Amino acid sequence: MASVLASKMGLNSLRRKQAKTFSVTVVTMDADLEFSCKVLDHDMPKEEPIVFHFLAKFYPENVEDELVQDITQHLFFLQVKTSILEEEIYCPPEASVLLASYAIHAKYGDYDPNVHKPGFLSQEELLPKRVINLYQMTAEMWEERITVCYAEHRGRTRDEAEMEYLKIAQDLEMYGVNYFSIRNKKGTSLLLGVDALGLHIYDPSNKLTPKISFPWNEIRNISYSDKEFAIKPLDKRADVFKFNSSKLRVNKLILQLCIGNHDLFMRRRRVDSLEVQQMKMQAREEKARKQMERRRLEREKQLREEAERARDELERRLIQLQDEAHMANEALLRSEETADLLAEKAQIAEEEAKLLAQKAAEAGQEMRRIKVTAIRTEEEKRLMEQKMLEAEMLALKMAEESERRANEADQLKQDLQEARESERKAKNKLLEITSKSPVPLSANALPPDGPNFNFSMENLSFDFKDTDMKRLSMEIEKEKVEYMEKSKHLQEQLNELKTEIESLKLKDRETPLDILHNENTEKGTSKQSNFKKVG
Question: Which CATH architecture best describes the domain 70-170?
Answer without folding.
Answer: Up-down Bundle (1.20)
